[in-house]
């Protein structure tokens, strides 16, 4: 086959895979989740295997322990979260009164300093931008939910994911060896080198960032609850768990926490405490968690990660969110490799004697 024919074959295979992924996106959630969990737990299975356990025994022990811990955590957290949500709903009228008392003086001051025409322009501008932001957010949320979290998919996530995780984790090394045997012999070493770099990038991000998110979620949730913020556990856990999107978790948690603190308390003490918790969390993340758990091995720019997550969620729903970072890592590694080749080529240097 000529180089052009080989390229057509690879591009055709990629196109078929993308079309298949798009068509099957509604049923792929438990399989993608199971593969991600298996990838996360594979190093532990390898360690137990080296310690003398069979691969099946190690897989059964790890998978069972993992999902038991998840269930226990849910059993502990769900009643607490439910209690906070119910209390929050009951206190909404008092929040509205407190916010009204805080905002009214600001509105009166604005009216005193601005003309009627300026106030109308400001009101129109704020209303338009707020409406656009809310519409965009609900549209994205709708696509994510309808794309991956319909009721049947939630049930499949609960019952099928553990089974998929078990078999993927048990057969992980054999699957890797089988795929390796399919590589074109002339390019096997190059492909292995690229896959090794992709694996290093994914391991650094997924395993490291997952640990960072869990640690931040626990820190924020416990801290906000201790200072007495209503819905503090929910806000803290949410801020920590979405911290894999650069800056979004901290910003969303900070804005939500400060807003709720202002509505909950008429003094400035609670908002100051909430702000202090998020500042401390950022210092903990930047100086301890990320250097220790993630390090400098990721090589994925925060803007690239945010774009990949938004694009994946918009195109494929929740499945797209799960696949966004791996796809971004693959594209990033291949792009850097292509750039290195270009910088060494005559196309960059000009005519080489």
Task: Give structural notes.
The protein has 14 helices and no strands. The protein has 353 residues and is mainly α. Among the domains are: 197-296, no CATH class; 300-353. Helix 3 packs antiparallel against helix 7.
Overall strand count? 0
What portion of residues belong to β-strands?
Answer: under 5%
Oligomer: single chain
Largest sheet, strands/sense/barrel: none
Output the number of helix runs.
14
Rg computed from alpha carbons, rounded to a whole number of angstroms: 25 Å
The helicity comes to: over 70%
Give the helices and strands as they follow along the chain: HHHHHHHHHHHHHH
First-last Cα distance: 30 Å
Gross morphology is: globular
Compute the average pLDDT.
Answer: 80
Query: Low-confidence parts lasting 5 or more residues at pLDDT below 50?
Result: none
Which class of secondary structure composition applies to the elements?
Answer: mainly alpha
Question: Could you name the key traits of this structure?
Answer:
single chain; 353 residues; mainly alpha
At a glance:
This protein has 353 residues and is mainly α. Among the domains are: 197-296, no CATH class; 300-353. The chain has 14 helices and no strands.
Topology:
Blueprint: H1 3-23, H2 29-50, H3 55-90, H4 92-113, H5 116-148, H6 151-159, H7 161-170, H8 172-181, H9 188-226, H10 232-241, H11 248-264, H12 269-294, H13 302-344, H14 346-349
Helix pairs in contact: 2-3, 2-6, 2-7, 2-13, 3-7, 4-11, 5-13, 9-10, 9-12, 9-13, 10-11, 11-12
């Amino acid at each position: 086959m000529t180089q052009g024919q080989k390229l057509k074959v690879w591009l055709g295979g990629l196109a078929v895979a993308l079309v298949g992924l798009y068509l099957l996106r509604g049923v792929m959630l438990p399989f993608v989740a199971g593969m991600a969990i298996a990838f996360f737990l594979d190093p532990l299975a390898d360690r137990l295997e080296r310690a003398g356990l069979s691969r099946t025994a190690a897989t059964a022990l790890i998978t069972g322990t993992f999902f038991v811990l998840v269930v226990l955590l849910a059993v502990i957290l769900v009643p607490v979260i439910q209690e906070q949500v119910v209390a929050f709903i009951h206190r909404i009228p008092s929040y509205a009164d407190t916010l009204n008392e805080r905002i009214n003086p600001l509105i009166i001051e604005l009216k005193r300093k601005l003309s009627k025409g300026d106030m109308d322009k400001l009101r129109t501008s704020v209303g338009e931008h707020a409406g656009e932001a809310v519409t965009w957010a609900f549209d994205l949320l709708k696509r994510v939910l309808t794309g991956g979290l319909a009721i049947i998919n939630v049930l499949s996530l609960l019952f099928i994911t553990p089974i998929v995780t078990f078999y993927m984790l048990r057969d992980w090394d054999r699957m890797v060896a089988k795929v390796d045997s399919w590589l074109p012999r002339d390019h096997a070493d190059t492909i292995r080198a690229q896959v090794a770099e992709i694996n290093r990038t994914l391991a650094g991000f997924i395993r490291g960032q997952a640990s960072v998110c869990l640690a931040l979620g626990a820190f924020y949730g416990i801290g906000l609850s201790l200072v007495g913020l209503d819905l503090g556990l929910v806000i803290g856990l949410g801020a920590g768990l979405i911290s894999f999107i650069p800056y979004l978790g901290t910003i969303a948690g900070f804005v939500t926490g400060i807003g709720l603190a202002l509505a909950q308390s008429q003094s400035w003490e609670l908002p100051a405490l909430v702000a202090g918790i998020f500042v401390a969390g950022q210092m903990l993340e930047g100086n301890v968690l990320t250097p220790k758990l993630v390090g400098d091995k990721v090589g994925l720019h925060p803007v690239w990660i945010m774009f990949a997550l938004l694009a994946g969620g918009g195109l494929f729903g929740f499945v797209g969110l799960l696949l966004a970072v791996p796809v971004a890592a693959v594209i990033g590694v291949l792009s850097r490799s292509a750039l290195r080749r270009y910088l060494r080529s005559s196309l960059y240097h000009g005519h080489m004697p």
